[in-house]
Design a protein that fits this description.
Length: 121
C-alpha cells in the first residue's frame, strides 16, 4: 500500500474527505469520476462543471449518482456541499470561489481555458 493510500484512508475514517470540484465532462472526466466515486477513499467529488449541465449530470449518472443539484452561485454550491448534495454548475469559476471545494481538477483538455482557470484557482 502506498503512503498516499494510507493517508486517504485516515482522512476517510476522520470524516474529512478532500472535496473535489471537477471541470469537464468528457471521456477523461467519466473515468476520473467513476474512480473517485466508487473506489477512492478520502476524496469526494462534490461538483462537476461543464458548459452543458446535462453533460455533468450524465457523468454523475454513469457512476451511479442520480440525485444532483444545479448550483446557481458559489454560495449556493457551498450550501449544497454542506448538505451532502452533489452539484453541477455551468460556470467553472464557481468551483474556484466556493469555500467548500478543496481541489479543482481541470480535465477539459483545452489548454488556454485550463491555464486561465488554474491561475484563478
Amino acid at each position: 500500500m502506498f503512503i498516499v493510500d494510507r493517508e486517504l484512508e485516515r482522512i476517510e475514517r476522520a470524516g474529512t474527505p478532500i472535496r473535489v470540484g471537477m471541470v469537464g465532462a468528457g471521456f477523461m472526466a467519466r473515468g476520473i469520476a467513476r474512480q473517485m466515486l466508487k473506489y477512492t477513499k478520502g476524496m469526494e467529488l462534490v461538483a462537476i462543471s461543464n458548459r452543458h449541465p446535462d453533460g455533468a449530470r450524465k457523468v454523475y449518472g454513469e457512476s451511479g449518482v442520480s440525485d444532483v443539484v444545479q448550483a446557481r452561485s458559489a454560495a449556493h454550491l457551498d450550501e449544497c456541499i454542506a448538505r451532502g448534495q452533489r452539484a453541477i454548475v455551468d460556470d467553472p469559476t464557481m468551483l474556484c470561489d466556493a469555500e467548500r471545494v478543496d481541489v479543482v481538477l481541470e480535465v477539459t483538455g483545452a489548454i488556454e481555458f485550463a491555464a486561465r482557470l488554474v491561475m484563478r484557482a
